[in-house]
Amino acid sequence: MPKQRIKGAAAVIERMWRNPTRGRVYWFLWDEHDTILDRTQGRPIAWKAILKDIQALGLTNASGHPVTNKESLRKTWARVRAGKRREAEAKQQRAAERRRPTNDPPPVIAWTVAPTPPRPSASPAPLQIVPVPRAVIEEEARPAAARRPDLFPNGPDVTRYKLLKGRRDV
């Protein structure tokens, strides 16, 4: 047997959902929220012109008086946007709570980074270490010993020169 509907129940339920402390302007902006966002596409809204249209529609604030100030209209829109944002967050939270628990770990969010292309100066050939002959190091050590006698008091010392230059070969 179908559930019996009481005449006028829908209006009562609608009033329960729609807070009576909000005016008709608020609920108009609430109902048209998505349309307004689609139409404005992030551009500023000309509240002075919209105020005249709202007054022409006969929409009132929570006190039952017509809206006369563009700032109050702008603030009402800000409240509508905040309410819609809270509603979306609550809906998302409820959906997360309804999710069935599993033993799977939570999803991993990984930032994908494209590999950097090789620099033009980088060569594809692998690095090869070639030992330098001792005679070459001695030739380099002589001018260094002449320039810095304090580092080479006994003349060109190949071992000391290699240590100072950071060489480990030969």
Nearest-angstrom radius of gyration? 39 Å
Q: Structural class, from helix and strand content?
A: mainly alpha
Number of helices: 7
Beta strands, count: 0
- The SSE order reads HHHHHHH
Uncertain runs: none
Cα distance, first to last residue?
100 Å
Shape field: elongated
**Strand percentage, roughly?**
under 5%
What value does the average pLDDT take?
78
Tell me the major beta sheet. Answer: none
Classify the helix fraction into a percent range.
Answer: 40-55%
List descriptors.
single chain, 170 residues, mainly alpha, 7 helices, 0% strand, elongated
Description:
Helix content is 51%, strand content 0%. By secondary structure, the protein is mainly alpha-helical. Helix 2 packs across helix 5 and helix 4 crosses helix 5 (70-98).
Q: How would you summarize this macromolecular structure in one to three sentences?
A:
By secondary structure, this protein is mainly alpha-helical. Helix content is 51%, strand content 0%.
Write the layout of secondary structure elements.
Blueprint: H1 9-17, H2 24-31, H3 33-40, H4 47-57, H5 70-98, H6 134-147, H7 158-165
